[in-house]
Amino acid sequence: MTIAFTFPGQGSQSVGMGKVLADAFPEAKAVFDEVDEALGQKLSDVMWNGPEDTLTLTANAQPALMAVSLATMRVLEAKGLDLKSSASFVAGHSLGEYSALAAAGSLKIATAARLLRVRGDAMQNAVPVGQGAMAALLGLDFDVVAEIAQEAAQGEVCQAANDNAPGQVVVSGHLAAVERAVEIAKAKGARRAVMLPVSAPFHCSLMAPAADAMAEALANAEITEPVVPLVANVLAAPISDPAEIRDRLVEQVTGTVRWRESISWLAGNGVDTFVEVGTGKVLTGMVKRISKESVGLAVNTPEDIDALLEKISG
Questions:
Q1: Which of 94, 75, 119, 103 is closest to 262 using CA atoms?
Q2: Active site residue: 106, 174, 199, 203, which one?
Q3: Strands 168-174 and 192-195: what pairing?
Q4: 94, 199, 262, 291: which is the annotated catalytic residue?
Q5: Cα(131)–Cα(167) distance, rounded to whole angstroms?
Q6: Which of 125, 132, 224, 287 lies in disulfide reach of 296, CB 3.0 to 4.6 Å?
Q7: So what's the pLDDT on residue 55?
């Protein structure tokens, strides 16, 4: 069994996430306390008690999702898991790259939390509310969607932002351009083409101000070599050099999340088991669509943790 640990991105958040772990394991509670302290905010209270619209704010959702992933990792480690000997790679979907790097020892948890707060604020502030949008175009290949985005742009920004799985691509850009892309996609036979309820147009060139903010924040952040390589979103290939990690995290803000290619690369390089660490099962569902021979496991409850450890040791 060759394992890659994967870490979810925005959209997987839900009120109550991580509470069971915090109540059951002091190692998990310590992670939430560390994130609260790093941010100077009782983020854990928002995570566990809501309100949902406050948790969903980009600046809260990003560090909150990282906190749950790392709390889960700390419990796994306390029960004997060693990432370096158990996994060959880590990967994370968008903000999940920060979780992956923290899990692999490249970023301290407090550093990751502060970076994600900067990232969330910068991404939210890059484009005035109502000017940008994102849409999911389902049932079309990535290359077709890229052509649709180009056709829809008409002097505005419209780009393929997330290549999540076969037939599951998200476009991002100016509101009118994204609306045009939805109509073109329907005309070209998309199974579904729907606007997404997001607060900003992520992973497109409109995020350039946020990329600048992250370049500044990352320049001062301590980043060390991860214990296993990170398969980077923008490359769909592994990296370990701290300087390159820094560059790719900046590039990622405006670049396409090449998740389909990342999972395909991992599967093609010996990984047969993908362990999604954190909240939800979004990535596990994508794995099944991308690589049908691979096993996908979502780990976010005490029972999931025990089942994974038994599978690894057995």
A1: 94
A2: 203
A3: unpaired
A4: 94
A5: 27
A6: 287
A7: 95
The answer to whether 60 and 106 have CB atoms below 8 angstroms apart is: no
Tokens of 219: 């320049």
Of 116, 114, 94, 91, whose CA–CA distance to 104 is shortest?
91
The yes-or-no verdict on residue 314 having pLDDT over 80 is no
DSSP-assigned beta bridge partners for residue 45: none
pLDDT band at 197 (very low <50, low <70, confident <90, very high): confident
Residues 6+ apart with CB under 8 A from 119: 62, 95, 98, 210, 213, 214, 217, 253
Report field, pTM of the whole predicted structure over 0.85: yes
The torsion region of residue 283 among left (phi > 0), alpha (psi -120 to 50) and beta comes to alpha
Report which of 155, 174, 164, 97 is spatially closest to residue 136, judged by C-alpha positions: 164
Q: Give me the phi and psi of 30, to 5 degrees please.
A: -65, -35
- Integer CA distances (angstroms), 196 to 56, 179, 193, 201, 284, in order: 14, 11, 10, 10, 21
Mean pLDDT of 59-74: 97
Catalytic annotation on 94?
Answer: yes
Residue 93 known to be catalytic: no
Q: Check pLDDT > 80 for residue 89.
A: yes
CA atoms of 33 and 49, how far apart (whole Å): 16
What span, in angstroms and rounded, lies between the C-alpha atoms of 72 and 52? 22
